[in-house]
Amino acid sequence: MKAHFRSIENHEIRHELEEVVYDHEGSLLEVHHPLEPLKIRSADEWKELLHARLSSFDLADRSGVWSKREWVLPQIPHEHIVTLGEGWNPLLPDPRTAKRLGLADLRLKLCGTTHTGSFKDLGMTVLVSWVNHLIKTGAPIRAVACASTGDTSAALAGYAASAGIPAIVFLPADKVSLAQLIQPVANGAHVLALDTDFDGCMKVVQELTQDRSIYLANSKNSLRVEGQKTVSIDVVQQLGWEVPDWFVIPGGNLGNVSALAKGLDMLYDLGILSGKRPRIAVAQAEAADPLVKAFEKGLGALEPQTARPTLASAIRIGNPVSYPKAVDALKRYNGVAESVSEDRLADAAARGDLTGFYHCPHTGVALGALEQLIEKGTIEKGSKVVVVSTAHGLKFSEFKTGYHESKLAGVESRLANRVERIAPTFAAVQDALKKRLG
What we know:
Blueprint: E1 4-7, E2 14-15, E3 23-24, E4 27-32, H1 43-53, H2 59-62, H3 69-72, E5 91-93, H4 95-101, E6 105-110, H5 120-136, E7 143-147, H6 151-163, E8 167-172, H7 178-186, E9 190-194, H8 198-208, E10 214-216, H9 223-228, H10 230-238, E11 246-250, H11 255-269, E12 279-285, H12 290-296, H13 323-332, E13 336-340, H14 342-353, H15 361-376, E14 384-389, H16 397-404, H17 426-437
Parallel strand pairs: 6-14, 7-8, 7-10, 8-9, 11-12, 11-14, 12-13
Antiparallel strand pairs: 1-2, 1-4, 3-4, 5-6
């Protein structure tokens, strides 16, 4: 039996992956992988295979996504894969922050060190590869389209350009960083800025993709999750097939948390992991925290918000499409949701930078939530924690500059490091350094 789509509400309802379908009568779909063909290999054999592929000269083998292709998209021909070397991002320790917070271990999974600078590449390589396969086997697809707050559009444009497939991008006008705006422009996408927010863009793209010749590339399309789930698989592999006590991950449209949990599910289902399960914390900005509000009320029906402006622009989403999947993930992994203020996320990112990182504001949200959860005792002292860093800080240089120049609204910039302009003399340099170094 091949991998296929199935309804998350009724597993008896299924669709072939070749169908252009994103939900079933309003119910989200997921890609289901029958376990029997995968259990032909033992847990040790899977570990050996995944390790061996990383030393291959084949680009797909070295991808953190396609090195696990049997778990991601097993029926795609190798020659139809569109990869730009995504995944297998560094998992770096931050011992100074761990010591400050009283943690036994703190690691940052740097998903921004990838082709277009964010974790969105992990899902987009799968989606664009499958569209490439469908086109090459005769499907009448003219273009792929997405709504975006920046990173999704960059990933779609980059992978679609590599495959030679037209891309259509809807962005909320004046609500994305310059670096995020120019990426799809440079890659030749059809970029349309709409006078609305992300949720308004999402409404338009869903209407547009009712035309089945234009393929939806947002995370409502469950193919995206198949690539993004490799984050947790990577982490476990990089930890020597062990799990941390907690994952902390930023949440916007919420495809990422459901993907994180799905990757862990596969490791347990195949017997590679057993016993203790990690917990998951989803971090949101207070300006856009519908999951947090739902969590506080017991994770019942979603109450959509009108998301307010936030420095964490990529997660400024008030009506997340993947909410039902996120709820299921939190329930399976005893998860929590936490929101942070603009002031806290900015300071948390700056504190992290002082240990050698260059954090995007969304990673600042995750770090700020980590601090708060430790203060509340939800995450215990002595825990082992992995924070998923979703994008490269270079995509948000205006945020960095604004912080250190104390120009961010509602942010005190307690750790601002201002550039000092001095006379070009040795005496002036000595005086300046004496003030700084003592």
